[in-house]
Amino acid sequence: MATAGPDRPSLDVRILGPVRLLVDGIPIVLSGAKPRALLAILVVNRRQGVPKTALIDAIWGDDPTPRAMDGLYAYVSNLRTVLRGAGIPDRDVLRTVDAGYLLDITDDQCDVGRFEAARTRGAAAARAGDSRTAAACFAEALGQWGGTPVTGLHELGFAANFATDMTERRHHVLVDRIAADIADGRASAVTGELTALTAERTVDERVWRLRARALYASGRQADALNAFRELRRNLVEELGADPQPETAELEEAIRNHRLPPESPSARGATTRDVPSIRRRAWLCVGDGDRIPVPPSGLRIGREPDNDIVLDDARVSRKHARILHRDDGIFVRDRDSANGVYVNEVPIRADTPLTDGDVIRVGSTRLRYGASEETAPPS
């Protein structure tokens, strides 16, 4: 693996914002959207070979030109020239493997890797009850962001999906950082931040619960109870739903001045450190093999950039998504033409899944399964 040595320049690739390549902290120009897209795809899949056909599909979309393969070779050659010109051993970093290419960099050499590493440390500290360290680690993770991920490339399907997924992960880390701050006695300092966040996330119950906790801890019980009333109104108007039991229990505890402490596991529940049931979740298409549900979820549709590609005329190009949330695994309709059904009931909002549920998209049925046999994360 290529790393910086005493006489080797340091390499840093950033995709949590505009795609940038820096050598010894100095930006190196990468002109054109397709070269930046190539670098972004390789960073997302760092230390894993990416087939040339997958790169072409991602960079050129559904209608690649007849000379797309020649274009790919040119972009790879140009990227190697840029690396070599900056003193980076290009053949060590950008390797040809099997039928594709591999970017051999460490997590420390890219912002997305540093984000994940800091987030993981924060989750571990939160589980251990070390709220101050957790908050610092989550803040470090958030500090890796420089804007909207892969800015300027969102017309490409892979880039739009990556930006959506990473933005959701960033939200979870932000909420985890706020929860750690509250647990560490800084409730008053985050009430304004939570007010702004609940204005954006009008039915995100975890965020509203944190807002109520922060208000109550700041001696503002009436404001905390008003927050619950506002949340109830939002849930009815937007989802036609009642609050989750956890929300109702917290409201009752605050009303009666019996607020329980937030548990370390709740403070540290992020998109990657999810309960064991989530890590053991899967989908089966028909009688096919199990497809594990990763922490980033699964995209379902007809386009090749989906995680589950269905050759079904009644399936939209971007049809459905399986996603992790604070309170379980849910299925979302991505504005499909024919809708999403769970156990033959059409869904109108993000819908929680339980073991044995059958999801229908178009004419295709997918069975959801989950195992609770493993111990909690350590």
UniProtKB/TrEMBL annotation:
SUPFAM superfamilies: C-terminal effector domain of the bipartite response regulators (SSF46894), SMAD/FHA domain (SSF49879), TPR-like (SSF48452). Residues 1-105 bind DNA. PROSITE patterns: FHA_DOMAIN, OMPR_PHOB. It holds the Pfam family FHA. Keywords: DNA-binding, Phosphoprotein, Transcription, Transcription regulation. It comes from the Bacteria. InterPro entries: AfsR-DnrI-RedD_regulator, BTAD, FHA_dom, OmpR/PhoB-type_DNA-bd, Sig_transdc_resp-reg_C-effctor, SMAD_FHA_dom_sf, TPR-like_helical_dom_sf, WH-like_DNA-bd_sf. This is BTAD domain-containing putative transcriptional regulator. It comes from Nocardia xishanensis.
